[in-house]
Amino acid sequence: MNFLYGNIVTPPVGFAPPQAWPEYGAVSDPPAICWREEVGSPESPGTRWSLWPIVFEEYIGDTEPDLVQSKKGALAYNRIVRWKRILRGDAPRGWRAFSKKTWAVDGFFPLPENGEYLPFWKKNARRDLGIWKKQFSEQTHTIEPITLAEYAEAYRRSIIARKVNQDRLHDLIRKLELPIVQKNTVLWGVKNIQTKEIVAGTAIIHSPTFKSSTHYAPFITPEGAKVYAATALMDHWFAEGVRRKEKFLVTANFWYQGQPKSWKGFSEFKSHFGWQYAAYPPILVRIVGGKFF
Questions:
Q1: What pTM value is reported for the model?
Q2: Are the beta carbons of 244 and 115 closer than 8 angstroms?
């Protein structure tokens, strides 16, 4: 596929996208207004949601969804089922691909054994980090864990909330209701030492299962942009990965043709940090009968 930021490669052994991690939480992120329920099995977990009068169901992983198991549940009406595979290329009987496009492009960074990740960053990212460390870090601003209330308040006045929406924040709040996600997530904020305001933040979800981590619902305010807070948080994440002896850092949802233009700016920013890129097979779809409304 034609991809702006680098070559698409086959992920190495041991890699899995965040959606396949137990610590990542729900496998799908339907709009907050939808009725929803978790379905499937441990081998093939899924999410079902209803936007009246249509019901959708979605699975992520290489194990074929158990559609007998999926007959259970309050929303088990006639529904459209989508299956997002990771590496598996075949389409079992009954499943169809209506498009040849990937369902996502993720960036992944294999952390070097010596912990030296900065040589893989682009020159401008290393320069911005140097400015942060020389002029702002521990002088005017600091990076520290923050509460969900602090995170949400700062997110709502961020650039991303104004330009796009708050869906990612809502998804994060829902994820943190799950004990396994809460246990393995840290909310980091860049705080103005004088005013105590949070000027940027990111949630880091760690997966001990896959020795990996990802960032989720990052945001930045106009003040944060002036002090290179986004680059500072990226460096903090990489350093945390090294400290925890993780194998992979993963950043999801790089922009590619057909995706919302609002993704392009952040994808361009993320591309400066040395990622390799993985694209997943097309989505498979089937219609499944259920109970009547």
A1: 0.86
A2: no
Judging by DSSP bridges, how do beta strands 198-207 and 54-60 pair with one another?
Answer: unpaired
Give Cα separations from 99 to 48, 86, 103, 282 (angstroms).
Answer: 22, 16, 10, 7
Helices vs. strands in the chain: H and E counts, helices first: 8, 12
How many other CB atoms sit within 10 Å of the CB of residue 97?
Answer: 14
Read off the tokens for 71.
């007959």
Q: How many residues are present in the chain?
A: 293
Spatial separation of the C-alpha atoms in residues 41 and 227, rounded to whole Å: 46
d(CA 182, CA 23) in angstroms, rounded, equals 9
Domain ranges of the chain: 18-104+281-288, 112-246
211: left (phi over 0), alpha (psi -120 to 50) or beta: left
In the numeric block, which tokens belong to residue 231? 């680059």
Q: What is the pLDDT of residues 138-194, one digit of tens each?
A: 999 999 999 999 999 999 999 988 887 788 898 899 889 889 999 999 999 999 999
**Phi, psi dihedral angles at 170 (to 5 degrees):** -60, -40
Residue 151 burial class via C-beta count within 10 angstroms: exposed 0-12, middle 13-18, buried 19 and up: buried
CATH topology of domain 112-246: Aminopeptidase (3.40.630)
